[in-house]
Amino acid sequence: MKAIIVEDEFLAREELKYFITNYSKIEIIDEFEDGIEVLKFIQNNEVDIIFMDINIPSLDGVLLAKSISKFSKKPYIVFITAYKEHAAEAFEIEAFDYILKPYSESRIVSMLKKLESINNHKENSLCKTNIQSKINLWKNEKIIVVNMDDIYYCVAEERITHVFTKKDEYSVNLGIAEFYDSLPKDTFFRCHRSYIVNINKIREIIPWFNNTYNLKLQDIDYQIPVSRSNIKEFKQLMNI
């Protein structure tokens, strides 16, 4: 994680740097004494954490935090200050922590460990999500890693399932029912015993014979049937 320190007292800044460097893996990428300079910096640089005093020149810490809270990607804000009267206001803008000076070593270390623990949990969750959004398919005797969102539809052929993206065709050595079990149900629907469709790729729903539908997909000239046995579930899914 990348951090900046906003503190106009040299000794307080040096003490905080010591604890961060020795008790965490957080990287300090810059230091500031002035609130306006901080605002300019974070508009052009990615920061995960801001360790900040409230009584700083140009723009006080609370006003600076309020401005930062409007950013689409919000860094964690840790106030380290002698002013206890701003605590309620700080937590209204969702500050990560509010530490009063003179602070203890154990208090700072506890806060650093909590920051790293939360960040590790976020990274693990993101990694898991990224893995789950991909799938291994076969093409030309090679295993190709494909984003699930790129799949338009799938077609059964005995014990093989053919998988189609906008431009490519792949296969997997699974029956369509077994393959369907591996797909996220909020994105894919088995509309026919031989077909799976990505519901996010449907462009048109065309009424067909015997109260069934054909589905036209985005970007490709192909229609997918919806069987009578799946019509009720399909209507519920598509709010028809």
What topology emerges from the helices and strands here?
Blueprint: E1 2-6, H1 10-23, E2 27-32, H2 35-42, E3 49-52, H3 61-68, E4 76-81, H4 87-92, E5 97-100, H5 105-132, E6 134-139, E7 142-147, E8 153-157, E9 160-164, E10 169-172, H6 176-181, E11 188-192, E12 195-198, E13 202-207, E14 213-217, E15 223-226, H7 231-238
Parallel strand pairs: 1-2, 1-3, 3-4, 4-5
Antiparallel strand pairs: 6-7, 8-9, 8-12, 9-10, 11-12, 13-14, 14-15
Helix pairs in contact: 1-5, 2-3
Keywords: Phosphoprotein
Protein name: Stage 0 sporulation protein A homolog
Pfam families: LytTR, Response_reg
Under CATH, the homologous superfamily of the largest domain reads Response regulator
CATH architecture of the largest domain: 3-Layer(aba) Sandwich
Largest sheet: 5 strands, parallel
Low-confidence stretches: none
Percentage of residues assigned to helices: 25-40%
Q: Classify the beta-strand content into a percent band.
A: 25-35%
- CA gyration radius, whole angstroms: 27 Å
The H-and-E topology, N to C, reads as EHEHEHEHEHEEEEEHEEEEEH
What is the number of E strands?
15
Q: Classify the fold: give the CATH topology of the largest domain.
A: Rossmann fold
- CATH class of the largest domain equals Alpha Beta
Give the strand order, joined by hyphens, for the main sheet: 2-1-3-4-5
Task: Please tally the helical runs, counting DSSP H or I stretches of 4 or more residues.
Answer: 7
Mean pLDDT over the full residue set: 89
Q: Structurally, how many domains make up the residues?
A: 2
